[in-house]
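Model it.
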Amino acid sequence: MRSHPAITADTKVTVSDNAISTPVPGGAVILDPASGHYFGLEGVSVRAWELLAGSATLATLVGSITAEFDVDHATCEQDIRRLLEELVERGLVVIEETNA
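Modeled.
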């Protein structure tokens, strides 16, 4: 397992240039051509992926999803953070460097 920076509310993430996704009935499938691995999404995670089309922060994703779905902020933040960590680990999204 690779080590990545912690994902905080202000962490900006973007879809990897290598990731290819397509909608499928009930979800979406993402392909990483470099590894040949597929990753399936369903439910709210599909919407999170759509919101990452450009780039987004964890806070932006949580704000949008809690506005669209019946989920409390804390649960949503925990679930979206876990999703982003998995997507980062698989190389499907990248954490953008900040110059703070």
